[in-house]
Model the fold of this input.
Amino acid sequence: MHAIMFRRQGGPEVLERVELPCPTPGPGEALVRVTAAALNYSDVMRRRGDSYPFPTPLPFMPGSEMAGIVEALGEGVAAPAVGTRVFGATGAGCHAEYVVAPAVQLHAIPPGLDDRQAAGLIVAGGTAALLLREAARLQQGESIFIPAATGGVGSYAVQLARMMGAGRVIAGVGDAAKRGAALALGASDVIDTSAPDWPAALLAATGGQGVDVLLEMQGGQALEAGLAALAPFGRAIVFGKANAREAVLGAAVQARLFYDPARNQSVQGFNLGGYIFQRPAALGAAMGALLGGMMQGRVIPPPVTAMPLASAADAHRLLESRAVIGKLVLTP
Done:
C-alpha cells in the first residue's frame, strides 16, 4: 500500500509517499480500506514538531481519522461486518490506503452521508460537540464566540450552538471573504479577527457585556485579547495552541485571572484524545447529539476540499495558509 510518512520534523517537504506492506488486523481490530482521510491541524503540529499532548515517534505516519470500507476482521471481532462503510479515529496512520483500527472505534456511516464528509466527523464534529456540551456547558440564551468559524470545528460549533439555544453566536473569521459563509451557518454576528481591534468589536456585539463562552485555538496573545471581551462568570475554553511559540497564558493575564478573581472567570483546556481514551461515554453522547442534529437537518456537514494522498505536502501548505473553508481530506 501507499502511505504518507515523515522521518524528521519540519516543513511540508519532509512528507514522503512511501510503499509499505498492507497491515494485518490483530485481535479486536479491523482492516479498513481508506476512501477518505481527514487532514487536521494536529497533523501539521506533529509534522512541525510543535508541543503536542501525545508523543510523535519517528518515523511517523500522520492522519488521525478516516472513512472507508471494512476489508477484514481480526480475532474475536464480529462487527462491523466486512463490506460496511465506516468512519473512525485511530490517532495516527490514516493517511494511507489501508489502516487497522480497534473495531469498537469504528462506526457505520449514516445514510445520506458520503465518505468524504464522514472522514472528519470525529475530530471536527466530535470536538465541536464536546466543547459546547462538556467543556463550556453552554446554556440556553448564553452568548458564545467561535473562532475560525468556517473551518471544520467552527462550522459544526456554530450550528450546534444554534441548536442548543445560544442567544448570540458570534463567529470569528480571519478573512473578510468568509463573512458570508459564517452568516450562512447561522452566526448572529461576524468578527474579522485579522483586525487589530477585534476584541472591541466582540464587546460591541454583546452591547459591552462580553461573551459568556469564548472558544480559543491560538493561545498566547490571541487568548489574552479574547479574554478582554469575556463576561463576568464567563468560560474560556482553549482547544488548541496553533501559535506554539507563545505561552498559552501570558503573565499579565494569569495575574488578572488568578489574583483578581472578582469577575469569576475561568480558563479551561480541552483535548479530544482525553475523551476518546478516558471518557468514551461522553464522546458517544456528543456524537449521538451531533448525528441526531444531522439527521434532523439542523446540522449540515461543512464543505469538503479533497486532494489526492500523493499531494499531502500541498494539502499541508493549504491548511497552514488558513484559506480552507470547511474540511480538507486526502483521498488514496
